[in-house]
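User: Continuing from earlier, I have the next pair ready.

Assistant: Great, send them over.

User: Here they are, in order.

Assistant: Folding the first of the pair now:
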Amino acid sequence: MGAGLLIVLEGAEGAGKTTQLRRLEMHLREAGRDVVALREPGGTPLGTSIRELLLDTAAEIAPAAEALLFMASRAQIVAGAIRPALAAGRVVLLDRFFLSTYAYQIAGRGLPEDEVRSANALATGGLVPDLTLVLDVDPEEGLSRARSRGAPDRMERSGKEFHDRVADAFRTYLTGAWQAGHPECGPLVRVEAGGGADEAEVFRRMLEQLRRRWPETFPS
């Protein structure tokens, strides 16, 4: 089998990543593609346990410990799920990857970039996404959507200033200058996910970007 594809969906809280990933997974399955959908943190028994801890509103977690917990989950999902799927020629759809760590732990929590990038290199073993779709939404709109889902988790409770920094970081990452200095992230593409656009329209915008690169894999 040839190498598969790793497609990552990123964005701030309430951007709609999880919804759009499910739509994309269903679209590919209906087209007969071999696809696996995963999320970070999670995707493995260890990752699922780490996810529960990270989102627990009763947990007190220092910023460095938070980052390292994400890295532990990432190392496990890369070794145990993503690399085997890619080696089998499958399309891997991933709800968050290390761009979120850069946004949430470097920009949001203020951790040193060089140290986080080094830890991430260890966790990923140099794995680079084929494409990351960054769903862009105003942070206020995104948090309003997140609140409508139910009680906020530990990350969602981090405060407006934190979430503003995260949203600003994702937009900075879309610039050519930033991407040139961070080749480990692979290509990043913005998808407008706010401003009144419904789920179907956001999905259409995503597919347009994917078909432009892989028309045979992502059919009309």
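And the other member of the pair:
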Amino acid sequence: MFKKYLIIASKQDLAGMNILTQFFQYIDEFQNKNVKFETVDGSILDEGNLDLEKINNFDFVVFASKHSTSSTEKQKTISIHAPGNFREVWGGGKQGKLGISSALFNKHLFENLEQQIQDLDLRGYKLTLEVTHHGPLINKPCLFLEIGSTEIDWKDKRAGFVIANALKKAIDTFEENKYREIAVAIGGPHYCPSFNKIQSNSNVAISHIIPGYVSPITEEFIEEAIEKTLEEIDFVILDWKGLGNSEQRDKVVEILNKNYIQWKRASEIN
């Protein structure tokens, strides 16, 4: 499905450079597999700092990056998310515009990260999806792969090594799985506890996640998330309690029903 991968990090990003440095052990093998590396000046959240012409020569882009949080609890994390902006434009991109997300690759990488965290005994880190947020806006399937949440974590070579191994294995073994069910997810908080369980323990592959905190969730948001999912979706998953009050839930359901989009509550997924 994807033949040529590009992994990008900012020279100023400690976690991104940590991840990229760990990849260098595979550089000869990756070169033969059409996997290339790119470092850039400035933030990778802003497409103005990227070589878009070069990016267009690749099938899939991985942005290696740090994750930070305003929470007082600085949980160690390894996280995956798709880029895009709903209401607030953060870092780059445009309001209401999302990047292209592959639900199948997202899930495949998530599973490989789970396995490598276990096999390499990376203790203290929590693997999590994040909702779709921030730039850049590019025209290729992409995702953010991040280490959080403090400078100590960003420079943790063990975490970088685990990510490098997981991404290598994901690239080596990725193929389309026609038996997966493809979904866009709506609702819930930033770190998606309900959707993490589904991504980890079900046959469903999740692409974009629209968080509850961008409510009111509009028809345009939902259409954009579906359109910018590389695969054809089977249904939308709703974090029912994470959609706010009954009026907000009813509005989302009304939009889905009006557009003949199948949906399920997260609690209904096996």
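Worth noting for the second one:
The chain has a mean pLDDT of 95. DSSP finds nine helices and ten strands in the chain.
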